[in-house]
User: What shape does this take?
Amino acid sequence: MRVLVYEHLQKLSLRYYHDKQTGQLMSRTINDTATFEVLIAHAVPDLVTNGLILMGITIILFIR
Assistant: This one.
């Protein structure tokens, strides 16, 4: 993901970088990709698991 963000930053015009500091760009890139990684690694599997549990409980309630 960081590679994709880096490639995107490389394609931006120089006007984008005019008022940005290097540290600010680095911090946002690292923090945003880390947050996205946490979302993909933890939140999505938990959401799928909770959805399957909810469906299972609903099926069991309607069968009985």
Remarks:
- DSSP finds three helices and no strands in the chain.
- The mean pLDDT is 89.
